[in-house]
Amino acid sequence: MRKIKELKEICKRQAHSIRTWNREWREHQRSGKGWQDWKPSVTYASSIDYRHHHIAYCMLRGTAYERIEPKVHPGNEPCWEKIKKITDTYTEQEVQSETTLCVVTA
Q1: Which end of the chain is more exposed for a tag (fewer CB within 10 A), N or C?
Q2: What is the mean pLDDT of residues 48-71?
Q3: pLDDT one-digit tens code per residue, 15-57
């Protein structure tokens, strides 16, 4: 039961950490060191988690899934249960605040 702005902030933080990880990995590769020396700060699961949060955020804002990910390879579909869980977490608060705004006291 959180606000959608919190979901946007989560997506921003996750995207920033993934971009930082990619930058660090490229620098590590260019330095000539092997992958054995690499200590990743972000895991593959982080990018999967970001993907699901991003899809949920876009869908809550009214964007159709086909516009978010126009081409998805077979076997690479998102986990709809996880997306539903995220959207449920952020929609209940919005619905409650809307019903509160509709109540008129005399």
Answers
A1: C
A2: 93
A3: 998 888 888 888 887 887 766 666 766 677 788 999 999 999 9
Residue 66 to residue 72: CA distance in whole angstroms: 9
Residue among 97, 103, 78 nearest 5 (CA): 97
List of residues 6+ apart from 43 with CB closer than 8 A: none
Q: In a 3-state reduction of DSSP, which class is residue 80?
A: helix
Report the length, in residues, of the chain.
106
39 or 9, which is more confident? 9
The pair of structure tokens assigned to 44 is: 């593959």
Round to whole Å and give the CA distance between 3 and 65: 21
Residue with tokens 């039961």: 1
Residue 99: per-residue pLDDT: 46
Q: How far apart are CA 34 and CA 43, in angstroms?
A: 18
**Residues 6+ positions from 100 with CB-CB distance below 8 Å:** none
Question: How far apart are alpha carbons 58 and 65 in whole angstroms?
Answer: 8
